[in-house]
Design goal:
The protein is an alpha+beta fold. It folds into 2 domains: 69 residues, no CATH class; 235 residues, no CATH class. The protein contains 8 helices and 20 strands. An 8-stranded antiparallel β-sheet has the order 1-2-3-16-15-17-13-14, with helices on one face. The protein has a 5-stranded antiparallel β-sheet with strand order 4-20-5-18-19, covered by helices on one side. A 3-stranded antiparallel β-sheet has the order 11-10-12.
Length: 323
């Protein structure tokens, strides 16, 4: 009797293992070749911006990827992005607006004085990152968004290693590019936002005070930069821009949440910054990193079920009367 039960249990376990493996093997085929368009769009957007974009290209042609991305044209080139509501905190010198597009929802924060924007760097640099809420608290800031890209040695995912160049208070605090050039999102001594390529020895020459690494630039000196939606897909986004009068524009868009917000393309970000009158703008780290923290709480809907991600850098907004 015991022997028969053991055989039956073995068969049941074997059946379960087989079905799990079968489902795992079929998952990418169902995702990329199946009829579920929202799932396919989220998958394309997520994988294209990961370290393994070749996974998408193994199942879909460049034309198919382009078609999927372009089917979600969130922004009309001839109209402004709708603003659902706006909250102005006069005492803090901040305006926060809720925006919506065809497939995205997000927040825009406007800060009149650009010199209030600083880069916060994890206090455990090279060991572990911090959450945006930690950066805000540690620096005495009033708000913050996630910052630049980072390396992930050994797949630890602890956010302790910023990529490219990182600058704080005019000093390079991290450089893993040597004398090569890299993409940068920076603020100089006058509070001007600088986007594009730079080398480490230009930091002092250009009076750069705060900077992180990420790309692509979206607008440079009032002109649209070169970028391809098909290389970035659709997903959660964080970006920064600046108006002619110096006003800083912080954008955080939710994504990968079919019942709430699928996300945005790079062209959506470009259209959004253009609508806000930006003369310079650039994309920052997105995906599960995308976050806007203000007044003691996260204002957007995080994609990661685990909550705030641990990151090496953030852009924080210092108090109005800080020096």
């Amino acid at each position: 009797m015991w022997k028969k039960r053991k055989i039956r249990l073995t068969k049941i376990v074997g059946f379960i293992i087989f079905n799990v493996l079968f489902t795992v093997l079929l998952a990418p085929f169902i995702t990329f070749w199946g009829p579920f368009e929202a799932t396919k769009t989220i998958a394309v957007g997520s994988v294209l911006t990961s370290r393994h974009p070749q996974v998408v290209k193994a199942f879909l042609s460049d034309q198919e990827i382009s078609d999927i991305v372009n089917n979600y044209n969130n922004s009309n080139l001839n109209s402004n992005t709708p603003v659902q509501s706006a909250v102005t905190d006069t005492s803090a010198g901040i305006t926060i607006e809720t925006i919506t597009g065809k497939t995205f929802k997000g927040k825009v924060m406007l800060i009149k004085d650009p010199k209030r924007i600083k880069v916060a760097v994890t206090k455990d640099l090279g060991v572990k990152g911090e959450r945006v809420s930690d950066f805000v608290k540690d620096t005495g800031a009033v708000a913050g968004i996630n910052g630049g890209g980072f390396c992930d040695p050994n797949g630890a995912g602890n956010g302790g290693f910023p990529d490219g160049l990182t600058v704080h208070k005019g000093e390079i605090v991290q450089n893993n590019i040597g004398s090569n050039s890299t993409d940068i999102v920076a603020l100089d001594k006058e509070g001007k936002l600088i986007v594009g390529q730079i080398m480490a020895d230009e930091v002092k020459k250009k009076n750069i005070q705060e900077a992180v690494f990420f790309w692509p630039p979206l607008i440079q000196d009032g002109k649209r930069c070169e970028f391809k939606d098909s290389e970035w897909g659709i997903g959660p986004r964080t970006a920064i821009g600046q108006k002619e009068d110096g006003t800083i524009i912080l954008v955080v868009i939710d994504g990968r949440q079919p019942l709430w917000s699928l996300g945005a393309k790079m062209s959506d970000l470009y259209n959004l910054f253009r609508d806000y009158g930006a003369v310079n703008a650039a994309n920052l780290d997105g995906g599960s990193s995308s976050e806007l923290f203000y007044n003691g709480k996260v204002l957007n809907k995080l994609w990661d079920w685990a909550g705030e991600r641990y990151l090496p850098t953030a852009f924080v907004v210092m108090p109005k009367d800080s020096k």
